Amino acid sequence: MNALIPADNFEAALAAAARAAADWLAANQKPDGHWVARADSNACMEAQWCLALWFLGLEDHPLRARLGAAILKSQRPDGAWVIYYDAPNGDINTTVEAYAALRSLGFSDAEPALTRARLWIESKGGLRNIRVFTRYWLALIGEWPWDKTPNLPPEVIWFPLWFPFSIYNFAQWARATLMPIALLSARRPSRPLPSQNRLDALFPQGRDAFDYTLPKKADAGGWDRFFRAADKALHALQSFGARHGLALWRPAAVARSIEWIVRHQDSDGAWGGIQPPWIYSLMALHREGYALDHPVLAKGLAGLNDPAWRQDEGEATFIGATNSPVWDTMLVLLAFDDAELSEEYPAEVERAAEWLLARQVRVKGDWSVKLPDVEPGGWAFEYCNNAYPDIDDTAVALIALAPFRHDPKFRALGIDEAFVRAVDWLMAMQSRGGGWGAFDKDNDKKLLTKIPFCDFGEALDPPSVDVTAHVIEAFAKLGVTREHPAMARALAWMKAEQEADGPWFGRWGVNYLYGTAAALPALAAVGEDMSASYIGRACDWVVARQQANGGWGESCASYMDLKSAGRGATTASQTAWGLMALLAANRAEDREAIERGCLYLIERQNEGTWDEPHYTGTGFPGYGVGQTIKLTDPNLSKKLMQGPELSRAFMLRYRLYRHYFPLMALGRAIRGRAFSGDAGLTGRRTSAVPWRRRSSRY
Known about the structure:
2 domains
């Protein structure tokens, strides 16, 4: 679209699209006030649960057949399984785990689906190229020797915080998973598949001729040799102790590890709000003697019937990697506020705000190991995850609840105390460099990424631009000025993280579009000069990535293939991010790009919402462990993984991203046009910022 559409028609279309989106949200709100939608991931979820139920002796569990149907439903025609929608390459780990799960269900290797999978695995180098976690799964079903997996002794539970290998120096997700795997590694249990269902076909030269050695880490240098030697020594020590009855510290370490795991179970039966620690904890505790009807295991298994985790589609069942009700609800509140529609949906908005305020975590979690004197005050992402509130949710919760601070009802509900707790907690969680990570303070010891265990994705939780930007925006909304020491450090850190050609890296959303959409509104909210050259570079980059249809899109492959940065199939959520970035900067020259982006959303709205099969959420980016990739990094080629598979990546499709982010963008466009006084996006500068009536959000 080259010609700008008439102002009256455009404004009417914007208003109609925003109202339709708000109506859709109102119709899809849960009775207690929150919003949530499924978070799609990949077939590893269903495959691993299928194998875990086998390991637990529940081979006849009715869920197993339904999981198998889900696995088959997501297979590609070439035989592989992928880690995100429309990925250019299959993933060998997902494919091997899916193949193993189907074999555990009794599927013959000669059946077409398994034959295609086996041939695809062979074409990618076979089992030699699978990750550590897939090797653990094969060991649990008797298909891989335990002594050829990285040894994780449970004695790590004793390591003090100052020691690099303390469990509290691992990221939240790695720590919660490491503890049950340490028990499994120590006990080396397996429940072999029946002889007719074994994976012999994946060892075409025979098991005795197979090389089980873990491939070397290209980025580990001399540490790779050191840790491999240490791993051999640990295996030898464990075998010697088992032969000669030498207990050493093992019984006490096992007991302490069990206590740690049980104490960390969430109220919904899961662990850590995510699938990996949940599934490994059930298997580890069962191996330690916990019966299936023990309250801890019974609650954990019952979670598989919880709609928060389980989604049935016909004969298939999908199990989520996580659930996102707190995140979804606060972002819906922001969308209503951005569109200035909160007063037109008072009951829905008030119920949501009450629900959200009540979800503040008031108990200490793992973060308090480093900060024992700090009071809790964060919000978690999921329904039940008190041990791991996160900085991102806490910052966005403050922005979402800010409009209710002076409401007498919410003051009676304790909103003032909630805000004080949250701000104090966020201030304490700032990392030494000035940014914020997701779950922990100063979680950046890169030595941990060199150990063999850490080939599965991110093992660390260093500061990221998107999280830091949300904290800056929240503080600005609450009146914290740019001169405040915490803000000054955060702004300096964030500016230093900008890429040379303009964008910011997106850690928790795909990718540079997400990072830039977080950074620019935060900078505008805190009063940065939006005519500064570095802001201009960011906007120029965003405009240059707009596509012919007016939308924006970025592939998950951008974490591995830098030519994909800001490029990919256009989506509603990423188009919204592109718009939010440009709207925050309010440049006259971006007038047409903004209008074209809005028109893209208007034209593609369908019954109040948008279709979006693509994955735009990020779990593990896949670019290598423990490091942020800079486009200008001279050592970039050494940091990126080799080969076609994104075996360190874990991507997510949050099904409400397609909805509330477009509503935010449309709302900001409506507000800006009404406030500018010229109603035509002429870009005419006024003393007030036409694209921001209030501090721009998210």
